[in-house]
Write a structure and sequence with these properties.
The protein is an alpha+beta fold. It is built from five helices and nine strands.
Length: about 220
């Protein structure tokens, strides 16, 4: 009697809600799921939750969120293939009458295979190089579909200070939120030891390694 169905979890595998990080989106957006072509992809129309009414309604974002089982995601060919698939999903979503002409678009991909023989810093450098190429080759589609953020979460096989094997989550983000178009930033995630949910995000590179935050995301009204 005390249980209530979570509509957001309806018609999906039990692990998808966590892997696609839908809880964070649900905190800041009213989400409506729309059809997606890929079996490991979900598409949502998000209306930003705000306490202040705004002319024309709250800002709208189209979210494409997917899971990848491909180990080649950090290569140029693998990254291009995944990004093109995300753009294809966005193109289909833009045809939905519920999506307005001012909506922005964001792509999130969670890569599940563990990466061996590479460090977080090397992954961050590779992501920066790959994004430079993809921005050049796919600029027309990225601009047409109003993509302002691309996010990839990867898992690196590593060891702790005592030599025990661990998996280090690294978040790679290309975002226009700070003004520069799809500027790349990489974060090492510090998970809660009990829940496994990320507790802190620590910036990699440019001498920022000591800078950690609770969440690297922003909305126009709320810290996401």
């Amino acid at each position: 009697d005390g249980y209530k169905e979570s509509v957001l979890r309806r018609n999906m595998r039990p692990t998808f809600h966590h892997l696609l990080e839908l809880g964070r989106l649900d905190n800041n957006y009213s989400l409506e799921r729309i059809d997606a072509a890929g079996k490991n992809v979900q598409v949502y129309i998000g209306s930003e939750k705000t306490v202040k009414p705004s002319r024309g309604g709250p800002p709208q974002v189209v979210f494409v969120r997917g899971i990848s089982h491909s180990p080649g995601l950090v290569t140029l060919a693998g990254a291009r293939r995944s990004l093109v698939q995300g753009l294809d999903e966005l193109e289909r979503a833009q045809a939905n009458s519920k999506v307005n002409l001012q909506s922005s678009s964001r792509i999130f991909l969670h890569s599940l295979p563990e990466l061996d023989g590479i460090t977080a810093e090397e992954v961050a450098t590779k992501f920066d190089e790959v994004m430079d190429v993809l921005k050049s080759r796919l600029a027309t589609r990225l601009l047409k579909l109003r993509v302002d953020e691309i996010e990839v979460k990867v898992r690196i096989a590593s060891t702790d200070d005592e030599g025990n094997p661990i998996v280090q989550p690294v978040r790679l983000v290309a975002s226009s939120m700070e003004g520069e178009w799809l500027k790349t930033t990489a974060y090492v995630e510090i998970p809660d030891p009990v829940t496994g949910v990320t507790r802190e995000f620590c910036v990699l590179g440019d001498g920022k390694d000591s800078v950690c935050m609770l969440d690297p995301y922003e909305t126009s009204n709320i810290v996401q």
